[in-house]
Amino acid sequence: MVDLSLEEISTQLESPNLRDRMVALANLRNVPAEDAVPLIKKVLDDESLQLRSMAIFALGIKQTAECYPILVHILETDPDYSMRADAAGALGYLGDSRAFEPLVRIFYEDTDWLVRFSAAVALGNLKDPRAHDVLISALDSEEVVLQQAAIAALGEIKDVESIDHILRFAQSDDWLVRQRLAEALGNLPSPKSVSALKYLEKDSHPHVAESAKISLQRLEGGSTS
Fold it and tell me: What is the structure's pLDDT at 3?
């Protein structure tokens, strides 16, 4: 990819050709956030959902004071569920603790599972212990992917109090759920975690067994250091 100047990027973002606009947006990856964000804003309402998705993601990476309110506005008002999901994910990357309340609210209020999934993942990325209640409630979701996201996020926020809640998934029919459990337990030091990981280390699925082995090593390494 040929690097474009800021002026060339700005002009190309207004091209009628979608490929031109996508190339221009991709060229912002090495541009400082202060210069990139005003240009990203030019395509936030683009007719192409793919380009909008790229732009929303970019706001989570190119972090300025403007990014947080823009992403919250998209999260709370955009009529397209995939854009709301992208905004939730970007808020997780942004790592701004103010995003906790909007993400919790959207998790409870949005009717689309993908948005709720992204909100749960983002809450894990924020690593805010206040997410305990909402993530515990997500464990009871009928959507397996939401259960996976909640288990992973509880590990991310190092919520040792959640161990009893997530251990019931050790015998889940879904191996990805069991893998998320094995990974999460590696962040939750407890005799119960060690016991569960030794059980999961013998899992019939190699990915689950390997994740359990890695988590056990992490816990045992932490206990001797």
Answer: 76
